[in-house]
Write a structure and sequence with these properties.
Layout lengths: L5 H10 L17 H19 L4 E4 L3 H12 L4 E6 L12 H11 L2 E4 L2 H9 L7 E3 L3 H9 L13 E6 L8 H13 L5 E6 L4 H11 L5 E4 L4 H10 L2 E4 L2 H9 L4 E3 L7 H6 L2 E3 L4 H13 L1 H7 L11 H13 L3
Helix pairs in contact: 2-3, 3-4, 6-10, 7-8, 7-12
Length: 329
């Protein structure tokens, strides 16, 4: 592992009793994307030399994902990409994730797409159909595996919980100011409690502390352990986020998702009606949240349990393909 977002990663590893064989520990405070990419590449090379894997599996769209694929490509090792084929069509949104996943697709030999729409994106880009497998998303596997054995997160049962996460680079600056203004307006309601799990990125922290630290109806918390966060999503009334994963996990828990981005690489939830793009427009964030709070019929329509991202069996499908492709004769 590269230890991107160290504290949050350690929580997830602990939740699933995973013990990495290699900890590259490349992340440093304030480093640029170029600096983190160069460190990942340099420290992965000796690991690949030692392990000599038959295949390198990368997941998602982080800088680590792309660098893992590139390091394997340099060594002539086949790459399998989990969550392949997601696209917004705009290399700047989200940044740098869209670029990471496009380039990873060019390097991958096997493409595990969560949905048929993602697979169609790959086919349009010239990826051979025999190398594309629609599996669902492993993130849904994780949510469903812990859903029924969750601890109780401390929330006010008399209020509707609005759970917030936001960390996208393209929103740094004025985008985060608008988000914070919207949350302040929503916090004026007496029937809600806003719980904001604040990302550790310094630019996110600075904006949130400047605009929200004195609002009594907004609870600012550090990122919580994975299992506890799933429970918090389950107890929330509305999920207000710019996270890709939560756009998939929310429908599994029957929660409507308002996506604080202009574009999403996960259009299936929008098409299904469980998610809605609101961008960082202060008025739109407030209006759509209020609609879900005040209109029971609209809430019921948007909260229906429909998940286009899988049934909890993605990992098994991926394992089956890998075993068939790389098993020893």
């Amino acid at each position: 592992m590269t230890a991107q977002h160290r504290a949050m990663l350690d929580q997830v590893l602990a939740a699933f009793s995973i013990h990495p064989d290699h900890d590259l520990n490349v992340m440093q405070a304030g480093q640029t994307l170029a600096e983190s990419a160069s460190r990942v590449l340099a420290r992965l090379e000796p690991v690949l030399d030692v392990e000599k894997p038959a295949c390198v599996i990368v997941q998602g769209d982080t800088t680590t994902t792309f660098c893992g694929a590139l390091a394997a490509f340099y060594k002539g090792i086949p790459v399998a990409h989990v969550e392949a084929g997601m696209r917004t069509g705009d290399l700047r949104q989200p940044f740098p994730e869209e670029m990471n996943r496009v380039l990873t697709s060019r390097l991958a030999a096997l493409h595990f797409a969560a949905t048929e729409a993602a697979a169609s994106n790959l086919r349009r880009e010239g990826v051979p159909g025999e190398d594309i497998f629609v599996t669902g998303n492993t993130g849904i596997d994780a949510v469903l595996s812990v859903r029924d054995s969750l601890p109780a997160f401390d929330v006010n049962p008399s209020k509707k919980i609005i759970l917030v996460t936001a960390h996208r680079r393209e929103s740094f600056g004025e985008g985060f100011v608008r988000i914070c203004r919207a949350l302040r307006r929503l916090a004026e309601r007496t029937d809600v409690e806003i719980i904001y799990a604040v990302h550790p990125n310094p630019q996110v922290q600075a904006a949130v502390q400047e605009h929200l630290c004195d609002v009594s109806n907004i609870r600012l918390i550090e990122p919580v352990e994975y299992v506890a966060f799933v429970d918090l999503m389950r107890r929330a009334h509305i999920l207000l986020t710019d996270s890709g994963g939560i756009q998939e996990e929310g429908p599994s828990l029957g929660k409507p998702v308002l996506v604080m981005r202009e574009k999403t690489e996960r259009p299936e939830a929008v098409e299904a009606g469980t998610a809605l793009l609101v961008g960082t427009d202060e008025d739109k964030i407030v209006a759509e949240t209020v609609l879900l709070l005040d209109d029971p019929l609209e809430y019921a329509r948007r909260a229906r349990m429909h998940n286009p991202y899988g049934d909890g069996q993605a990992s098994a499908r991926i394992r089956e393909v890998l075993a068939a492709r790389f098993s020893q004769p």
